[in-house]
Design brief:
By secondary structure, this protein is α+β, with helices and mostly antiparallel strands. The protein contains seven helices and eleven strands. The chain binds succinic acid (SIN) and fe (iii) ion.
C-alpha cells in the first residue's frame, strides 16, 4: 500500500501509464493537478447547499443533480461545476489508464462541502473509520470501484486520510465473519426496494466487510495504517473497493466514481472479487 506521487500537471495531456501501480493498490497522487474552480462558483462553497448529510451528486448519464437545496441559477452553477469535474476526471483516467479505455463506466460525481471532522453520524456511515467502499443500494456485481478525488478547499486546508492494510490480509482477517447470502435474499432485497438491482454474493460479502471493519473499534485502533494529508489543489485516484481508507478531516472535495469490469484488469487475480472467491472457494457472481 503506497501513495505514489505522479508528475502529471494536465487533465488533458498524454501521461505516464499508471495501470500497474493502480492495480498494485497504490493511491495515485497528483500533487501538480489542481481542479480550477471559477470565481462565480464561490457561492457554492457552503455546507448549507446540502439537503443530505454528505454530498451533492451529479449523474453524468441523465445530467441530473441531487442532494442540494439550491434552485435556479445556483443549481445550474453546481451542475456545471460537477459536469466539468466529471469530464476532467474522465479525461485523466483515459490518459493515464490506457488499458481501461472504453471499459470504464462513468458513474456519479459528487461535491462534498461538509467538514468531515466531528460530523455526527452512525458508525455505518462514518467515513472517518477505515473501510473499503461498497454500495448498499447499487450492487456492482464484482466490478471495481475507481474514484478520482480533488481537494478544492478555498482556504488551503488539506484533506486528511488514513490508508490501511492490503486487501488480501484484510479479507483473511475478516473472512470467518463474512457469510454468504441465503437463497432468495437477493430477489427479496430487490423486491422490497432495498437494492436497485440484485445484490450478488460478492456485493453481500463486501457490504459485510465494510460494516465489520467500521464497527470494530479495536481494528480501527490497531490495524496497520498511515496518515496522509492531501493538500488543497491536489488530485488522487484509487480503487476504493480494495484500498482501506478513512477521511478524518477536510472540507470541499470533488469526487468522480468509475466502475470497471474485472476482466478489463491486467491482473484480475488481485481484484477483491477473485480474492474473496479464493477465500470462499466458490464463484461469487
Ligand atoms: C470515503 O470515500 O470514504 C470518503 C473520502 C473523502 O470524502 O475524502
Ligand atoms: Fe470510502
Amino acid at each position: 500500500m503506497a501513495i505514489t506521487p505522479v508528475g502529471q500537471a494536465s487533465w488533458t495531456a498524454e501521461g505516464e501509464d499508471l495501470v500497474a501501480r493502480l492495480e498494485r493498490g497504490d493511491v495515485l497522487f497528483f500533487p501538480n493537478l489542481p481542479f480550477a474552480v471559477e470565481p462565480d462558483e464561490a457561492p457554492l462553497f457552503s455546507p448549507d447547499i446540502l439537503s443530505s448529510a454528505k454530498n451533492a451528486s451529479f449523474d453524468p448519464a441523465s445530467g441530473r443533480t441531487g442532494g442540494t437545496t439550491l434552485e435556479g441559477a445556483d443549481r445550474e452553477r453546481l451542475s456545471r461545476l460537477l459536469s466539468r469535474f466529471s469530464h476532467r476526471a474522465a479525461s485523466l483516467v483515459d490518459l493515464v489508464l490506457p488499458a481501461y479505455r472504453g471499459r470504464l463506466q462513468r458513474a456519479r460525481a459528487s461535491f462534498r462541502p461538509a467538514e468531515v471532522a466531528g460530523r455526527t453520524t452512525s458508525w455505518r456511515k462514518d467515513d472517518t473509520r477505515l473501510h473499503v467502499d461498497s454500495f448498499p443500494a447499487s450492487p456492482v456485481q464484482g466490478r471495481r470501484i475507481l474514484r478520482v478525488f480533488s481537494n478544492v478547499n478555498p482556504e488551503g486546508r488539506a484533506r486528511s486520510w488514513r490508508v490501511g492494510e492490503e486487501f488480501e490480509p484484510l479479507a483473511r482477517r475478516f473472512a470467518t465473519c463474512l457469510s454468504l447470502p441465503w437463497p432468495g435474499q437477493a430477489a427479496l432485497l430487490r423486491a422490497i426496494g432495498v437494492t436497485k438491482s440484485p445484490r450478488s454474493a460478492y456485493d453481500a460479502l463486501m457490504l459485510q466487510l465494510h460494516d465489520r471493519m467500521k464497527e470494530d473499534e479495536g481494528y480501527q485502533q490497531t490495524a496497520p495504517q498511515v496518515a496522509f494529508d492531501f493538500p488543497s489543489g491536489t488530485t488522487w485516484a484509487v480503487f476504493t473497493d480494495e484500498v482501506s481508507h478513512a477521511a478524518t478531516a477536510g472540507q470541499y472535495q470533488l469526487e468522480q466514481t468509475f466502475l470497471l469490469p474485472v476482466d478489463a484488469m491486467l491482473a484480475s487475480d488481485r481484484s477483491p472479487l477473485r480474492i474473496l472467491e479464493r477465500l470462499k472457494g466458490r464463484a461469487l457472481i
